[in-house]
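Suppose you are handed only these lines of text.
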Amino acid sequence: MLSLGKILLLLAVGAAVWLGYRVHKRIESVRARHEDELNRLRSQALKPKAEMVECSRCGIYVAGTQPCGRRDCLFLSR
Ligand SMILES: [Zn+2]
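From them, the structure of the protein bound to zinc ion can be written out as follows.
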């Protein structure tokens, strides 16, 4: 048998859970927006000026099909 006090307590708990959920969702959405912005800035910063290819021999990045300049470079042996 539910007393009035128990009903009020249940309502209070429900409201608290609901409020916590709302706050949680809000924080998540704000964080997600910040992550998107960060990722966008990061990818912009990392985006090379020209089309860059990692040299498979020495691991450095070179523009297009330019050889990286090392004597043992795969680009040079082509
Ligand atoms: Zn190379």
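What can we learn from it? The chain is about 60% helix and 10% strand. The radius of gyration is 29 Å.
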